[in-house]
Design goal:
mainly alpha, 0% strand, elongated
Length: 96
C-alpha cells in the first residue's frame, strides 16, 4: 500500500508535466503554470513539515490541478504563430 508521500510524488510529476504544457500556451498558459507551481511549492512544504493534514490538503490540491490535465488539448506542432490554434479553442476545452 502506498503512503501519502508516495501519492504526492506521483501527483507532483503529473503537475510538473502539466505546468510545462501550459507554459507553451502563451501568457494565459503561463498564468495557469504559475498557479500550478504555487501548488507544487505548497506540496513540497507539506512534505518537509511532515504534518499529515497538510500533506492530505496538498495531495487534494495536486489532484485537482492534475485533473485539469485531461482538459488541456495537445498543442499542434506547426512552428509558426500564424498557423497556431486560436486561443479560443483552448479556452473552450477548459470550460468543457
Amino acid at each position: 500500500m502506498a503512503t501519502l508521500p508516495e501519492f504526492i510524488a506521483v501527483e507532483r510529476e503529473h503537475c510538473k508535466r502539466l505546468s510545462g504544457e501550459l507554459g507553451r500556451l502563451g501568457s494565459a498558459g503561463a498564468f495557469g503554470a504559475a498557479l500550478i507551481e504555487d501548488v507544487l511549492v505548497r506540496a513540497e512544504r507539506a512534505l518537509i513539515g511532515g504534518n499529515p493534514d497538510a500533506m492530505q490538503r496538498a495531495l487534494d490540491e495536486l489532484r485537482d490541478a492534475a485533473a485539469l490535465r485531461c482538459r488541456v488539448p495537445r498543442l499542434p506542432d506547426r512552428g509558426h504563430a500564424s498557423n497556431a490554434t486560436p486561443f479560443s479553442v483552448y479556452v473552450s476545452a477548459l470550460r468543457a
